[in-house]
Write a structure and sequence with these properties.
Number of helices: 21
Mean pLDDT: 79
Structural class: mainly alpha
CATH superfamily of the largest domain: MFS general substrate transporter like domains
Low-confidence stretches: 1-17, 204-216, 434-466
Shape: globular
Number of strands: 0
Order of helices and strands: HHHHHHHHHHHHHHHHHHHHH
Number of domains: 2
CATH architecture of the largest domain: Up-down Bundle
Distance between the termini: 35 Å
Radius of gyration: 23 Å
Strand content: under 5%
CATH topology of the largest domain: Growth Hormone, Chain: A
CATH class of the largest domain: Mainly Alpha
Length: 466
């Protein structure tokens, strides 16, 4: 009987997690760094017209600049996760901040589009990929009960910075031309460095892992080590594959309104300002949706996967209703549905990331986030061309929005095939397989980040030593 008490206390402490304290400082760091990644990417459209006039290229050629940056950010996310597993998240994020700023500074000296593809697209995109996933994983490792709320508060910076950056960037272009504006944005991006510096470095294990000299330089050992850093073993686990498939389907339709809602509003007869206000209204409720969803999910009344299913289904339904609401020419109806869509689309984003530890376990959260972004990136790029093709075939956006919304609803059905989906309680998170346990000494930083002390006094001593 006496041996059960410490075990119960340990389980209680593990359920509580290290919520609060320095974790809220990291939430602020994620707030700033996310605004300097996605908020900046969303506002680069200000330079679109300037590039078209200066380089005298087609709109399609210019649009590949931002597309290359987004694709690079998602493509290099697994690399950022692997480097954090191998080394330290603090160093990786600060390196990413340097690359993000360097790419924009070099872009200010571009003389052709290829230079912009390589600088704003590839170099800055690589930097963004090294920043976002490690910062998100670091915040989630410091929260358990308030994890979704912490992510919701941090991700609200995307909407807020989009509103602030658009007029700011326009002012910079008018005052300093596009070259001077990009130079300033490069300096602004360097503020990611202090955000990364706020991640407390993890002390390495005192006793290094024993090394087998016969296998140190063997190809199979090196391949296994790389696989461990990338967490490639997740691709053979049914829960993770199912969850990734669901999020990939969600991504096919998620971005369609961002690209085509304004065009649809213009096509049905509303003015330019009315069409622009529809998207702004959706962006406003998107901010509230992220925070409210995080607060609601952390109440613990419902499982996180069920909350995600709810917001995904509602977002899909409202996407399908967007063209229907404007068929009668009612601008009020379109605005109302846009407000509801913006709220639900924002609400699901925080839960998508917060649910990853429930699927793969906290220990493999970093690699799981990186692989998830890599796989879902293709679907995000597929959805917009597909909706454009449907518009060209039918002559309107009704089919485009109907198909986009159906992909979100289909994602909910795929999530319903997860093991223990219909259970009222979360199953125990999976543990790293025995093969990976051999390499536990390879990433002591993440191991210490995700391990929880067994009692309160030990917890205080651990935090004071960092």
């Amino acid at each position: 009987m006496t041996s059960q008490k410490p075990k119960a206390e340990s389980q209680s402490d593990e359920a509580e997690g290290p919520d609060g304290g320095w974790g809220w400082v990291l939430v602020g760091a994620l707030f700033v760094s996310t605004s300097l990644v996605f908020g900046l990417m969303r506002s680069l459209g200000i330079f679109f017209v300037e590039f078209v006039h200066y380089f005298e290229e087609s709109a399609q050629a210019i649009s590949w600049i931002s597309s290359t940056g987004l694709a690079a950010q998602q493509f290099f996310s697994p690399l950022g996760a692997a480097l954090c597993n191998a080394y330290d998240a603090r160093v990786v994020v600060m390196t990413g901040g340097c690359l993000a700023g360097l790419g924009l500074v070099l872009a200010s000296q571009a003389t052709c589009l290829v230079h912009l593809y390589l600088t704003m697209g590839l170099i800055s995109g690589l930097g963004w990929g090294l920043v976002f996933t490690p910062m998100v994983a670091t915040v989630m490792a410091n929260f358990t009960r308030r994890r979704t709320l912490a992510l919701g508060l941090a991700f609200s910076s995307i909407g807020l910075s989009s509103f602030a950056f658009n007029p700011l960037f326009q002012l910079l272009v008018e005052m300093y031309t596009w070259r001077g504006a990009l130079l300033i944005l490069g300096g602004l991006s360097l503020n990611i460095l202090p955000c990364g510096a706020l991640i407390r470095p993890r002390s390495r294990s005192k006793a290094p892992a024993p090394v087998d000299s016969e296998h140190t330089f063997s190809f199979s050992a090196a391949l296994h080590r790389v696989s461990s850093y990338l967490e490639l073993s997740l691709l053979w686990e049914r829960p993770y594959v199912t969850y990734t498939m669901a999020i990939t389907l969600l991504n096919v339709g998620y971005f369609v309104p961002y690209f085509h809602l304004v065009a649809h509003s213009r096509q049905v007869g509303f003015s330019e300002y009315q069409a622009a206000f529809v998207m702004s209204a959706a962006g406003t409720t998107d901010i509230f949706g992220r925070v409210v969803s995080g607060w609601f999910a952390d109440l613990g009344h419902f499982r996180l996967i069920h909350v995600l299913s709810l917001w995904t289904t509602l977002a899909g339904v409202f996407i399908m209703l967007l063209p229907v609401s404007s068929l009668s020419g009612s601008y009020t109806g379109l605005v109302v549905i846009s407000l509801l869509y913006g709220f639900c689309s924002g609400a699901l984003t925080s839960v998508v990331f917060a649910a990853v530890p429930m699927v793969v376990g906290v220990e493999r959260m970093m690699g799981g986030l990186g692989l998830l972004q890599l796989i879902e990136s293709g679907a995000g790029l597929l959805g917009t061309p597909l909706s454009g093709l449907l518009k060209d075939i039918t002559g309107n956006y009704i089919a485009s929005f109907a198909v986009a919304g159906s992909f979100l609803i289909l994602a909910t059905f795929v999530m319903a095939t997860l093991p223990h989906y219909f259970s009222c309680t979360d199953p125990p998170p999976p543990q790293r397989c025995s093969l990976d346990n051999k390499d536990k000494g390879l990433n002591p930083e993440m191991e210490q980040m995700n391990s929880l002390p067994s009692d309160t006094n030990h917890k205080e001593a651990e935090w004071s030593d960092r």
